[in-house]
Amino acid sequence: MVAVIETNSLTKTYGSLVAVNKLNLKVEKNTIHGFLGPNGAGKSTTIKVLIGLLKADSGSAKILGQEIGWDRPETRAHVGYMPELPKLPKHLKGTELLDIYGRMYGMTEAERAKQVPELLDVVGLGDRGTDLIGQYSKGMQQRLGLAQALLNAPELVILDEPSLGLDPVGMVEVRDLMKKLAKQGTTIFLSSHLLHEVQQVCTQVTIINRGVEVTSGSLEEISSRVEGPLKIEVEVNNLSKPILEKLEALPFVDNVSRSGKKLLIELTTRDDVRSEVSQAITNAGGVVVAMNLKGESLEDVFIDLLGTREKES
User: Fold this and answer.
1) Domain check: are 197 and 274 in the same one?
2) What is the mean pLDDT of the chain?
3) Strand 32-36 relative to strand 187-191, pairing
4) Residue range 114-143, pLDDT digits in tens
5) Within 13 Å and on the Cβ side, how many CA atoms surround 19?
6) How far apart are CA 279 and CA 283, in angstroms?
7) Is residue 297 predicted with pLDDT exceeding 80?
8) Which domain does 288 fall in, by range?
């Protein structure tokens, strides 16, 4: 696969603090790549190096096949970027701001006249484009920041916490937009702390901690690296002793604990055995109300991998 972002031993320090430590990152074309880590992990520093706002101390980085330099307008013209909580001039109207950014991209007047209203519609600001940005809510400013990142139809879009300030409906709209862009051939590099949102939209994930890569790969690959068995949390109507006995007799069940109508079933395997568990409950006269597999979500992976790394350091 073609890489649109590729770093080799990328390192950035602030005095004695190593913010990014020999980071090897690869983002493949036509993917939505999640970039995760706790606060202070080095995510924003990495992004600032990639877009040329900071200069690395050592190592190398390529964007769209080109080495990052201080003056690469031909490359930057194909990259859209939205910073975390973009600070936008409040005295301008939304349409005016996008028009200015369009001029900076070298877009013609006709291109700007076509793209600006289209992008405002895409991000849900079609009827507010002529309002002053100072009248926008935080979520509306976030939407406008996303619109400017999409000007000039970039090949690569880098988003730093794009869901900040958005309500649940806005989050869903942004998520759907990212999926649509990816289908159209745009690669998206998404830095976020919202693990659920990342799991909903990303095809690839890289997790870093203290500037070091912890793991990278598809969600399935990363989930398979978590140590320890899975657990199943299930809510059951008509919960009875025969149901507990049926579950405890299953060969892959290590322990069953009960809290009201809920059971926590500890497994000896990482295989998905929910259908077997559900069948055992039904055969014993119970009714499954809800069932969740714990230990395979991105949040489970994140906690497990960072915990392992902390013990090793």
Assistant:
1) no
2) 86
3) parallel
4) 999 999 998 889 999 999 999 998 888 888
5) 19
6) 6
7) no
8) 231-294
